[in-house]
Amino acid sequence: MHQVNSRDRGLNYGDGFFTTVRVCEGKLDRWEGHLQRLKQCASALYFPVLDLNTLSEHCEIAAREINDGVLKVVITRGEGGRGYGLPDEPQLTTLLSSSAYPAHYENWRVKGVSLALSDVRLGHQPLLAGLKTLNRLEQVLIKQNAATKQADDVLVMDLQGEVIESSAANILICKDKRWYTPDLSHCGIQGVFLSSLQMYNPIETASMDLAFVYAADAVYLCNSLMGLVPVRQIDHQQFSLSKAQALASELVVKA
Predict the structure, then answer these.
(1) CB-based burial of residue 83 (10 Å sphere; 0-12 exposed, 13-18 middle, 19+ buried)?
(2) Active-site residue numbers?
(3) What per-residue confidence (pLDDT) applies to 2?
(4) Does 9-101 carry CATH code 3.40.50.720?
């Protein structure tokens, strides 16, 4: 059994990052997008240049063993350094783990989801905004709060009341035949699926409050595991599921 040293900086400080990959028929879905995410995180956190070829080889082997499910890739700065100070020559730790594909996502895509408003709000740290680092205590609190709500998930705002994301997915909105996603320059995570959509569709980044979201023609959740999921209700505001499904069919979605 492989073990992580108790002095690993990922364990002690959250000094690392991760990505979660859908595995279909032994293949890594949107793998290039996940590699770009890992490269972006490594650069922003002053990690050494990643050996992406070796990482890809190991992940492809793991994907063949999983066949259908989820692969999580975690990279930490390893051991060393005094306190918060960085080690002079970090020896990175890479962890691969697998899990079953969440069965309820298929039902969500067909029937849509209901969202409650989260009581937990996201703080601002522009240096980490958009990155999927190991510092996820806000999301832990959001998930715990979501468990107290009578809804499938929660809509999360920041301290200024701007809509940012759900507990684990990006937000996409269609309004007057234009597509929008929240501004993540201060907080939130830029998902691989959303990045893929933005490559092939005219999606505008916008600051949005609840009134903007409630006035939308359709609202969606999206991430690399669930794909695109229509929202049928936020708090007491109802949305047309059939309209959401019709509008979604106009989007270009590529693997």
Answers:
(1) exposed
(2) 20, 132, 165
(3) 67
(4) no
